[in-house]
Amino acid sequence: MIGSILFNGNVIREQDFIYQFADRISQSNHIDPIVRDSKKVLLITAAWRDNEFNEQHVKDALAEVGIKSQYRGGFDANIQNLCVYHKWLQYYKHNPFACDVYTQAINTLLKIKRFYQERNSELVHLLQRHTIMLRKEFPNLSLERILSSGNQSISSLENTQELFANYACREVQKTLDYLIGGDELQAQMSQNIQEFAKGKSGVFADHVYQQTRRELVEKILSSNSIFIFGGDISTLYHSLRFWELQDALKEALLRGTNFYTVSAGSMVLGQKIIVYDDFQELRGQKPRHFEFFDNGFGLVKKMTLFPHCKDRIQTDDPDNLAYLAHRFQGKVCVGLNEDSFLLLDSHTHNNQLYPRYTSVGKKDGVYVFDPSGQKICLDYGEELPVPGTFCWHQQQNRPPLSQEVYSGQTLWNEDNKNI
Questions:
Q1: Residue-wise over 338-352: b if at least 16 C-beta within 10 A, else e?
Q2: How far apart are CA 237 and CA 156, in angstroms?
Q3: Which residues of the chain have pLDDT under 70?
């Protein structure tokens, strides 16, 4: 990896993101000398939907930090908007048949998601109720212990209370397994529906689709900096997926492009996209639950991101943290707030290239938790020992990580070797 990704949770003003990291934005490691010299910027604002082109305030901020617009033929050639959402809408006008196929496919996917959301909500409530019942009998039993306890043989149990605990823990684990299975099925159904729509619509055989896609890919690969802003995750995700741009984003990173992402823009680059239940109000329910949205583009695979951390996660509740990490199978879970910034870049040690994850927010840290339910806050300049990083490898030569203390608190254990 030559480029970098700067993740943010939910910065309020896009300009502040630019001002705060002006020095970084003006730098370049891109392999193309023309891109390095121009500092070309690409904006991905599809999550703003109808406001996709309302980016002038971002251009003004970039100009203030030295990234100037360069107009050629009436178009800005140096600060461009990928405009994937409006390109998507325009293509539908060109190809009404494809529009009908994709509209039906997305409507079907929404129906599936509603089934999934109903199931998700009921199972989450069941897991909560059963956990409460179990902890009335065993007040000191944490959710992490409930979810990770092994299945003991009946002959090894000493009394009926232990028999009840063994049974109840297994039931809670089964409920969690049903939740995880529903997430996996949701991802598979989404993939099947998208492949069906692409095949039936014939878009890959359409020269207009192919030409538009080539133009979008070229914009991505010729950019020194790519900003992916937050907003509506569904619009952002499906716009990028319609044009099959995930591989172009990965290649851009390898070419030296630096990414700056906010909220939804951060989530789409991960392995899994975890969101809140957006339909809870339609069902008259007040509690909001986390749910699986879809598989992300996989530029980052060894951690699970949770933007809007302080608004959505009860970070002082170890049981809540343990549930999220077990549920979404994230052994390294990262919570980001408005002033939290996590930089993924790379560095060389003894001629070997390592990825590096560093907290770079000066006003707030990066919140990290795992299936144990324990949490740490990484302050400015502290590195996150994600598997594969140099600091993680350093820890492997120390005592077992279950005994290791990092920033004053125990976090990673021996099992993380296999991530």
A1: bbbbbbbbeeeeeee
A2: 51
A3: 1, 150-157, 277-287, 397-419
